[in-house]
Amino acid sequence: MKITEIRLGMISVPLRVPFKTALRSVSSVEDVVVEIHTDTGAVGYGEAPPTGVITGDTIGGIVGAFKEHIIKTLVGRDVDDHEDNLRALNACIVHNSSPRAAADMALWDLYGQLYNIPVYKLLGGARKQIVTDITISVNDPEQMRRDAIDAVGRGYDCLKIKVGANPSLDVERLVAIRGAVPPEVCVRIDANQGWEPKEAVRILNGMQEKGLDIEFVEQPVKAHDFEGMKYVTERSYVPVLADESVFSAADALRIMQMRAADFVNIKLMKCGGIHNALKIASAAEVYGVECMIGCMLESKLAVNAAVHLACAKKVITKVDLDGPVLCREDHILGGATFEEKLITVSDAPGMGIRGVQEGKITYIDS
Q1: Mean of the per-residue pLDDT values for the chain?
Q2: Which residues are designated catalytic?
Q3: How far apart are CA 108 and CA 155, in angstroms?
Q4: CA-CA-CA-CA torsion for 336, 351, 246, 131, nearest 10 degrees?
Q5: Does residue 91 contact residue 20 with C-beta atoms inside 8 Å?
Q6: What is the pLDDT of residues 195-237, one digit of tens each?
Q7: Do 56 and 149 fall within a single domain?
Q8: Are 104 and 153 found together in one domain?
Q9: Which CATH number does the domain housing residue 73 bear?
Q10: Residues 189 and 72 in one domain
């Protein structure tokens, strides 16, 4: 099975409601879709979101990375040379983690198709189903209270609350939500780098002293501030999960060695795909650190790849793969099924993706 062509296209999927964090506000998914074609007719699918404020990847940058580097590297290669293909992909361009992730998932898709086995079984096959949380965007406390009530009504028992945009309002937001949902509902918060270390400790300890029962806080300080994150981890009553700080296995390893966080978040778009995510998972297994699997604003196509990884590895104990349920429409054929909080991986060969609905992808000329 030889790679003969790589095609790029754009998909646009409206969100149910605007997605708001301490860093940005987004109303639709606008992502680059990647198709790796072969001489047998098999196609591998990938997706890359332009998340410039986190990864630095823009639509132009993603397209440029493929046209100038990735396509030239992969076309003509044999799908069966899987390890060599992944190494070549990661060597052909530095940074550009989202386009590398899109190509990586398409290569895994084809490799699974070649041997007629789903990717999650290739990687370990730990389980077939996982349960995700759902994100509550930053808004005024009353709106966030209503959104939390709606989520619980839809069956979610774990809420990820976006905070950090206005520290003086964060406690009020959590008080409003905790007062509106049953006490057994898990509440985790995501500051998206919104606080300074001492401020984070003050806010987090104040939350716990008010009985808000926070499971953990995601990325309370700036991504580069490993020492600041360690400061928070050592002094906060709330456990800390590193997210934007983890772009590579080296980052994850440093955090674990420093004990700068209690957990690490694996996102394919930050680390460059499954090939590199497996290294983070292996390091976590060695250090006894649990992982969360997360996503950017992605359609089911890209999130599906994260589902395969999550279903393969038991070290991934926390799931934040709500991207598809935040979307108003689903344009992707095949793949995992998303029934609100319950996600079931596909047993079809590869990633199980059959393509994009007709008329929902706009191809980019080579």
Answers
A1: 95
A2: 162, 267
A3: 32
A4: 20
A5: no
A6: 999 999 999 999 999 999 999 999 999 999 999 999 999 999 9
A7: no
A8: no
A9: 3.30.390.10
A10: no
